[in-house]
Structure formats: C-alpha cells, structure tokens
Amino acid sequence: MRLFPLLLLLLFALPLHAEALKEIDWAELIPPEEVERLEALADAIDHSGAGPSYTWESAATVPAMDGRRGKLPGYIVPISVSESNEILEFFLVPYFGACIHVPPPPPNQILYVKPEKPLPMVHIWDAFWVQGTIRLREVKNELAHSAYAIDLESVEPYR
User: How far from the centroid of its chain's Cα atoms is residue 32's Cα?
Assistant: First the structure.
C-alpha cells in the first residue's frame, strides 16, 4: 500500500516530463535549398575585408516550423519599450549585436516576439531561452525584417 502513492506520483509525473520543450536550432529555420545556396557561395565570399560585405536577405521559411513548439537560445533586441522601461515587443536574434550593427541577420534568422504582458528590461548582451510556438509571420520595421514570430510562453536567462 505504501508503494501505491509513489506509483501514482510517477504516473502523473511522466506526462509532465514528456512535455519538456525541445530545443530548436536556428539552422532549422533555413530551408534546405537556402543552405545549399549558402554552401555554394562559401568559396566566393571575400574574407579579406577588401570588398563590400555580403548580405544574405532570405525571407524563405520552412513550412514545417509553423506551429512547432520549442525553445531557442538567442539575444533580445527591444523594438518598443513602455514609459516604465518594460519591453513591449522585441526581436530574437541568434548572435550578439545582431540588428544593432549593420547588416542584421536574414529575415529567416530573426523572430518577432510580442509578449502578452510587458517584460522587465533585460541586459541585451546576455543570452536568453525563449520558449513558445513558432509561427510563419513576417514583420518589418526600420530596425529589421523577420520571417518568423513566436507565441511567447516564457523568457529565461540562458544557462
């Protein structure tokens, strides 16, 4: 009889464990044909700094990502902030400095996020886990152009 409560607890804990969010790799947001195109360009790009920098502007998306729930690591670039310095909307980008320095990442490497409630201001040089459901949704503004959005569930410091 003493084993029954433990078994009952395990029975209910297993589905919670199965619900753990899987990590989404930024590369999964790039269609395979785009990856092939980039690999073909690798030898043609001049890394000496003598010529203009190459910018990749692809907004091509991966349809299978629409509705995928998971978590991505990245950096928060605030788009709009409240009078009390809370983040009202932001872009999530894969590397530090993206969207602040020119050029920004391609649209299929930027996620637009509009939290239901304003978020406290963060240190933008710190990485975060953003959890939620990916959507195919373009957002353009003067800062950047994103090809994806995420229905936000949570934001946590990257550890």
Answer: 18
